[in-house]
Amino acid sequence: MSAHHGANPLRDAADRRLPRIAGPSGLVIFGVTGDLSRKKLMPAVYDLANRGLLPPGFSLVGFARRDWEDEDFAQVVHDAVKEHSRTAFREEVWQQLSQGMRFVQGTFDDDQAFDTLKSTIQDLDKSQGTGGNFAFYLSVPPKFFPKVVQQLKKHGLADQREGSWRRAVIEKPFGHDLKSAQELNAVVHEVFPPHEVFRIDHYLGKETVQNILALRFANTLFEPIWNRSYVDHVQITMAEDIGIGGRAGYYDGIGAARDVIQNHLLQLLALTAMEEPASFDADALVAEKTKVLGAVRLPKDLAAHTVRGQYAAGWQGGEKAVGYLEEDGIDPKSKTDTFAAVKLEIENRRWAGVPFYLRTGKRLGRRVTEIAVVFQRAPHSPFDHTATEELGQNALVIRVQPDEGVTLRFGSKVPGTSMEVRDVSMDFQYGESFTESSPEAYERLILDVLLGDANLFPRTEEVELSWKILDPVETYWDKHGKPAQYESGTWGPVEADEMLARDGRSWRRP
Ligand code: BG6
């Protein structure tokens, strides 16, 4: 396209609506027998194929210890797709996709297996036309990251030929604290250049999360009041009704704060609080996100402004739920947090003095993720006191899931002869406004990896800044006491309510 065409805004707008289709490429998944792979990655690959967004010769290679042939692997993918994919199963799509499926058996220190992987990829280049372009998806526990990337290097799998690419996709958790994250970054960057490393934070792949940017920067309505002059505080909640399920091995010793505050919730905070980026390019976004994450401060008194909890037995959805300490595989003396709440402040001109309260927990009242921007009360009220007692604070609530949309809460006159004002809300719901259903986060993210689009992937600096924020909290918790117990199916420990009450505020009950 000539520069002349590139300058035409109408043409640009039209171009951006064309589907972005991946070029010749393949995906290698390490940890392919795991839950994430079956429930999210395999279905996402199929959904992309079904939407016509993968190239005809796209190849999927599984690497694991199981004694499987290619056909066994294909069968596992088939079952996973049938059970978990978002779009309908179509035999012709499956037939084409399964042509490019291969399985390589081995452990991570098995040199022979990595040689086999290399020849498998070379064969796929010939038979499927993958063009040497491969992404290596590390869906494995972090302790294996160094080994796998070193093996990729040793066997020449990370070498990019002229005109082709090799990329590393890394699942969370990216480290356990700042130090381990830095060590991991060093290991990965020895093998892959920074622009070929894609760290997954699947929240960034969610439509509603990307919509934060559209809401803020494609409109004139919100940005003028998006600051300390109008905003009283911000609440970011990620509540889950499920317990830890079969993930004891992963979760115990990690806990809620490391599992989701360090990544998902701090990314939501960054998108909510950052300045407008110069463009929607990865570099521009990272610049703004790192700036705001770098300005985040913890309160001095961590006892008063952080809370951790652990679920005790209770009732959830009409069923009896066991407590965390009774879950299979959990050390009965475990001090792991399944609920975490922190108050953060952002030291910049826009946000000085506006607290951001983050909370997350398992086995809470219901599954809901939302960002609530709560506004100050009107500076003066001409109505007499009794007429506004049912009026709360104005709020803009970005409903990330499951009931995706945006709600604006404001006061309105109750019909009648007196001037009584009460809260009402205006709602935008995805389901009502759009006919397209939202793709799964992993569809978007896998496609972006294949296209080399990095804007929805946190960079090294963001990951490290996030650990810098969380580390002092974890250290404090380690040294002081243990998590407060809360009954399953409730909204967390009373200490969390007390934490906000101390500031004269209360959590929303979504
Ligand atoms: C993962 C966490 O990153 O996100 C899990 O490790 C959590 O503990 C999950 O359950 C929630 O994802 P979603 O997309 O269902 O909100």
TrEMBL record:
The keyword Oxidoreductase applies. SUPFAM superfamilies: Glyceraldehyde-3-phosphate dehydrogenase-like, C-terminal domain, NAD(P)-binding Rossmann-fold domains. The active site is at 264 (proton acceptor). Pfam families: G6PD_C (PF02781), G6PD_N (PF00479). It comes from the Bacteria. It catalyses: D-glucose 6-phosphate + NADP(+) = 6-phospho-D-glucono-1,5-lactone + NADPH + H(+). Residues 213-508 form the Glucose-6-phosphate dehydrogenase C-terminal domain. Its EC number is 1.1.1.49. GO terms for cellular component: cytosol. Keywords: Carbohydrate metabolism, Glucose metabolism, NADP, Oxidoreductase. Residues 28-211 form the Glucose-6-phosphate dehydrogenase NAD-binding domain. Pathway: Carbohydrate degradation; pentose phosphate pathway; D-ribulose 5-phosphate from D-glucose 6-phosphate (oxidative stage): step 1/3. GO terms for biological process: glucose metabolic process; pentose-phosphate shunt, oxidative branch. It is an enzyme of class 1 (oxidoreductase). Substrate binds at residues 202, 206, 240, 259, 362. NADP(+) binds at residues 65, 172. Signal peptide: none annotated. One of its GO terms (molecular function) is NADP binding. Belongs to the glucose-6-phosphate dehydrogenase family. Catalyzes the oxidation of glucose 6-phosphate to 6-phosphogluconolactone. NCBIfam families: PRK12853.1-3, zwf. This is Glucose-6-phosphate 1-dehydrogenase. It comes from Streptomyces montanisoli. The lineage of its organism: Bacteria, Bacillati, Actinomycetota, Actinomycetes, Kitasatosporales.
